[in-house]
Design a protein that fits this description.
The protein has three helices and four strands, in the order H-E-E-E-H-E-H. The chain is an alpha+beta fold. The chain is globular and about 40 Å long.
Length: 125
């Protein structure tokens, strides 16, 4: 039996937004949605490119441990669902204070609900 190879779930440098100008551009020109423990800012990319993610955590979240945990949860959620987007996007996720009281399942639920609300996920047939 030969099964199709599953898609790799990597989150390498090519999938990251790292420059301040990219974050600023998305904040000013992109679309925005606030839902649950996150704020999502996004812009569509041309077909054939890879989706990219940037994560913002402010000191309002808590100490360095809490901020790093929030970043890890948001990046892992994106990593697991990066192939579920209906089209490629540049996405900046801003963690809100409520993320400190959530586990991975709660963060993932908020992430997926936000993407469904703005039709960024593939429709399941």
């Amino acid at each position: 039996m030969t099964d199709a190879a599953p898609q790799r779930l990597r989150f390498g440098r090519a999938s990251r937004l790292a420059q301040n100008r990219d974050f600023t551009r998305l904040r000013n020109q992109g679309e925005r949605l606030v839902l649950g423990c996150l704020v999502a800012n996004w812009n569509q990319l041309p077909e054939g490119t890879k989706s990219k993610l940037g994560v913002v955590t402010s000191k309002k979240i808590g100490n360095a441990v809490a901020r790093n945990r929030a970043r890890r949860l948001l990046r892992e959620t994106f990593r697991r669902h990066q192939h579920d987007f209906s089209r490629p996007v540049e996405l900046v996720l801003v963690a809100r204070n409520s993320i400190t009281s959530k586990d991975f399942a709660g963060v993932e639920k908020d992430f997926l609900n936000a993407l469904r609300r703005v039709n960024l996920l593939k429709t399941e047939s």
